[in-house]
Write a structure and sequence with these properties.
heterotrimer, A mainly alpha, B alpha/beta, C mainly alpha, B: alpha/beta, 4-stranded antiparallel beta sheet, 10 helices, C: mainly alpha, 12 helices
């Protein structure tokens, strides 16, 4: 197990390195060259030339790359040019990151808590109206563009349900502890602050959760169907075990293997969905920063946030793989 | 009253958009306490489905089961799910064909044994583990204590099947059903497993229903044999009578098709001509008629009924093979 | 030994390993598909849209790029042309007939989907076949590249590629959306190739002296066809949706003389509060066609699943 972990960590490092190369290449490929990338539209020919020399862009490409790496490692990503002009990109990230994290956690919790039981039930009642309806629903869920769904939720449901449709929390002077508004409210026992934050999270989280829910539901259903046909379930039945024990120890334990992998993949996909959802709801997270960054060609912001997004995705998938090894003894004891 | 009395057991499979298929067609047989009964036939004759129907392990949707299965006086087919679960594992045990796929890959062997003990004998996990190690030892698994925490993929095929036998016999059931338990194993291991089974059921006094297509297995193990064809029993006899004087042309054909070591060189093999696909429905006559060397006109017009031909032998045939001069049978 | 004899022998070998019951996988799949309501419904939707796309120029009441109703657009009062005789759905922000744009938009939207899928498939085919058929260091190298591409969430990668172009147009959108599909196809094909390399029919063909190229193209690729077709239909759906997302972020094709649903949807987001119909109609069309392809893809996947075979 330990060897496996170490091996995967080294792989992770390799991927991150290649990613940094890719981002570096991407930056240089952006229209206008890296200097104008950093200067944005405001760069004139002179300022660009000056910056190019300052950044050492006249030096061989290897040197440039290593300088880029050096800057990245020391946390110097420059300042934003479009999203929050003048602010350090790192500051922007630190400000906005808890918001997106909170939103993502809620979304994935919704997707899992609704998706897995529903998937199990649909598998057990295969072919019934319940099964057909839920599968149909999940197919539609995948066919709807996320930003459009976010629109519909915002316009139609927000007013009907009395839920806020923009932002993260109304200005009510809540105390900040961790930066996670709901948690902060709970920790400081400012219940109205926590509730207010929750209300703001509700609709965006549902919009964001739709696709992960649909996928998790389908995979759970398929996995349970597969496992139910397996011989060892029949053996468990032949032992006269209670239905509950068969379900828990034999069916679900095995069905969860592919589901766990899927959850990991979906967490990664959440990042992209967050870009669209946060933009629609004007939710001040990393996603919104990315969306505005793309719109306004704020390359410093884009550079760092994409890098971070990719690293997070890779790390999450590594964790998923490791947990898979924990759950499935066949991988562990190789 | 016999331990197990199967009367007119019928299993029909219904699949969407297809004709209903009768896999088991009014099958009847008895098993006395401590007796070993064989169910023999080729693939698709319904023998596995019979055993699953007895245990109540057929899918609820798509399979229609009728008839009676009297186990110690209680009709298993009329029991509720909960009542069946009480009996399974405790009074009735079953061993399946493929030992690797029949074991849960993600939980240790020990737990798969103890869960039967915990369920039916109310043992604690600790006590059950001790008992489990003892059981694994009894089935001939070396170093049983270490095996308890190992996983199925870490054991060899033979050891897995031994573990499954241990699981099936853990609560000392009165009846054990073994569905082709050695088919998926190497030939050398097969012999070991069969020997093990024979000793265990003898020691425990367990009745055994042995399902197989292999007449060699039957010869070495069973007291009484039921030969199945296309879902019906076509011949029933005591072991030595069946091998010495097979009366049904199908049984006769099966025995004749076994290659013999003392046959002269160049002698051709004697398969039964045709295949299962050539069968006609029992409702139109005898299902075996298209392939039968003894076929008469009546065989494709009148369905043969099961007759008692004396000495406890049952036969379903219009034109059985006539008894020959008794020969030496090499079992 | 005549070549004809060898060819016949190889072909019959391949067939005999296809299925024991004498029915090929394709035939048994088709049998089940014909009866599947999901497949029929999905195909109906797709065929309907294809027909609309083909006859759109003839049935559209007006030229989709002609700003006939421009005088009815009053920006100051945020007013766009109402539904009126000759213009059943009214006009858009530029005074063009909305219904015509929707109808003709089917063409461009389908084109985007089809081309994006084809490019992704071609790229994935090349990489995957290379990796799977040769194995060894080629495999490692190619899969490293693929893994890195997969390490960035798909949509995000599409955004990133889209951002590379100072002046986005239809081609850049298709490119962005298709490149992210390449690793998926590559993985799929490589997996299929690797699985088949050790299989009996390949070993038989090799031992009979069939050249490696022929083995790959005539014996291995056809067996990979099933999952590829399934994936292609699903990718068709996602590429249309992804293209819409690109437009939403401003990375899409700004030239809207030739209408495309994703572009229309993305462009309507600024006025969705006041003129929701400008977004709802293209969204509805996108959802419908994405659903059609997804339904077909899913039913194909079920039909081709060997476990479901009779």
């Amino acid at each position: 197990m330990l060897r496996y972990t170490v091996r995967r960590l080294i792989q992770l490092l390799g991927v991150v390195l290649v990613l940094s190369l890719l981002v570096f290449a991407w930056l240089r490929a952006l229209p206008g060259g890296p200097a104008s990338a950093l200067l944005g539209d405001r760069g004139t020919d002179e300022s660009r030339a000056a910056l190019e020399q300052q950044l050492g862009l006249d030096q061989p490409i290897f040197v440039q790359y290593f300088k880029f790496l050096g800057r990245a490692v020391t946390g110097n990503f420059g300042n934003s040019t479009g999203v929050q002009p003048g602010d350090s990109v790192v500051d922007i990230f630190v400000q906005r990151f808890p918001a997106t994290l909170e939103l993502s956690i809620f979304a994935i919790v919704i997707a899992v808590v609704v998706g897995i039981p529903l998937g199990y039930l649909a598998a057990k009642r295969r072919g019934t109206w319940f099964d057909n309806l839920s599968v149909g629903g999940s197919l539609i869920g995948v066919a709807v563009p996320v930003f459009f769904l976010a629109f519909v939720l915002k316009e139609v449901l927000a007013s009907k349900l009395g839920l806020p449709s923009v932002g993260r929390q109304d200005a009510i002077g809540a105390t900040r502890v961790t930066g996670f508004f709901v948690l902060d409210g709970l920790l400081t026992q400012e219940w109205d602050a926590a509730w207010n934050a929750l209300k703001h999270l509700f609709l965006p989280a549902i919009a964001l959760a739709t696709i992960p829910f649909a996928v998790i539901f389908r995979i759970t259903r398929a996995a349970v169907l597969d496992v139910m046909d397996e011989d060892y379930v029949r053996t468990a039945e032949a032992k006269g075990l209670t239905a509950q024990l068969v379900r828990r120890r034999h069916v679900l334990r095995n069905a969860m293997l592919p589901v766990v992998t899927t959850i990991g993949l979906q967490i990664g996909a959440l990042l992209a969905g967050a870009v669209l959802t946060e933009k629609v709801f004007a939710f001040p997270g990393v996603g919104e920063a990315l969306a505005l960054g793309f719109e306004r060609r704020d390359y410093p912001v884009l550079q760092m946030l994409i890098m971070v997004a990719a690293i997070v995705y890779v790390v999450v998938n590594l964790l998923v793989d490791l947990s898979y090894a924990l759950i499935d003894p066949r991988i562990r004891t190789r | 009253m016999a331990l197990l009395e199967v009367r007119d057991l019928t299993v029909e499979f219904h699949r969407k958009g297809e004709e209903p298929f009768t896999a088991v067609d009014r099958v009847s047989f008895d098993v006395e306490p401590g007796q070993t009964v064989g169910l023999v036939g080729e693939s698709g004759c319904g023998k596995s489905v019979t055993s699953l129907a007895i245990m109540g392990l057929l899918p609820k949707r798509g399979a229609k089961v009728s008839g009676t299965v009297n186990f110690e006086g209680t009709d298993l087919l009329r029991l509720s799910d909960k009542q069946l679960r009480d009996k399974r594992g405790r009074d009735l045990g079953m061993v399946f064909q493929d030992p690797l796929s029949s074991l849960n890959p993600v939980i240790p062997i020990g737990l798969q044994v103890t869960e039967v003990l915990e369920r039916h004998q109310g043992l604690s996990r600790k006590a059950a583990m001790v008992e489990a190690a003892d059981l694994l030892d009894k089935v001939g698994i070396p170093d049983p204590n270490r095996r308890l925490s190992e996983y199925p993929h870490q054991l060899s095929g033979g050891m897995r099947q031994r573990a499954l036998i241990a699981i099936a016999l853990a609560c000392k059931p009165r009846l054990l059903i073994a569905d082709e338990p050695t088919t998926a194993l190497d030939v050398t291991i097969q012999a070991q497993i069969l020997t093990l089974l024979r000793e265990l059921v003898r020691d425990l006094g367990t009745a055994l229903v042995m399902i197989t297509h292999d007449l060699g297995v039957v010869a070495g193990l069973c007291d009484e044999v039921n030969v199945l064809y296309a879902g019906r029993v076509v011949e029933k006899a005591q072991r030595h009578e069946l091998f010495a004087q097979p009366r049904h042309p199908y049984t006769h054909g099966l025995l004749a098709s076994i290659p013999r070591l003392d046959a002269p060189r160049g002698e051709r093999l004697n398969p039964i001509r045709g295949s299962v696909a050539d069968n006609i429905p029992w409702t139109s006559g005898c299902a075996f008629a298209p392939r039968c060397p003894n076929v008469l006109d009546v065989c494709t017009e009148v369905t043969p009924v099961q007759e008692d031909i004396g000495g406890g032998r049952l036969l379903r045939c219009h034109n059985p093979v006539q008894p020959e001069v008794p020969q030496e049978v090499s079992a | 030994m005549a070549i004809g004899t060898k060819k016949e022998r190889i072909d019959s070998l391949a067939e005999s390993t296809a299925d024991d019951s004498g029915v090929s996988l394709a035939a048994s799949a088709w049998k089940r598909l014909r009866r599947s309501p999901v497949f029929l419904f999905g195909s109906f939707i797709i065929v309907a849209f294809i027909i609309i796309a083909v006859i759109a120029p003839w049935i559209a009441p007006h030229d989709p790029s002609a700003r006939d109703l421009a005088d009815q657009v009053i920006k100051a009062r945020n007013q766009i042309p109402e539904p009126q005789p000759g213009h059943p759905l009214g006009g858009d922000l530029q005074g063009r007939d909305f219904l015509s744009r929707l109808l003709v938009g089917a063409q461009q939207t389908l084109l985007v989907g089809v081309f994006a899928t084809l490019i992704g498939l071609a790229g994935g085919l090349a990489l995957g076949t290379l990796a799977g058929a040769f194995g060894g260091w080629v495999d490692s190298l190619v899969m490293r590249i693929v893994d890195v591409m997969l390490s960035i969430p798909q949509l995000l990668l599409a955004f990133g590629i889209g951002a590379l172009f100072a002046k986005p147009n239809l081609f850049t959108v298709i490119l962005a959306v298709s490149i992210v599909q390449i690793p998926v196809f590559a993985r799929l094909l490589r997996g299929s190739m690797l699985a088949q390399r050790g299989s009996d029919h390949v070993l038989a063909a090799t031992s009979l002296g069939v050249k490696p190229g022929a083995i790959v193209f005539r014996h291995m690729l056809p067996n990979s066809l099933g999952p590829v077709i399934v994936q292609s239909t699903l990718v068709l759906a996602t590429s249309i949706i992804d293209a819409a997302a690109l437009s939403f972020l401003g990375l899409g094709n700004p030239d809207d003389r030739v209408p495309e649903w994703g572009q229309m949807l993305g462009g309507a987001q600024t006025v969705i509060d006041t003129h929701p119909q400008l977004a709802f109609w293209p969204a509805g069309c996108i959802i419908a066609i994405a659903l059609g392809f997804t339904l077909v893809g899913e039913s194909l996947r079920d039909a081709l699943d060997p476990k479901n075979r009779r």
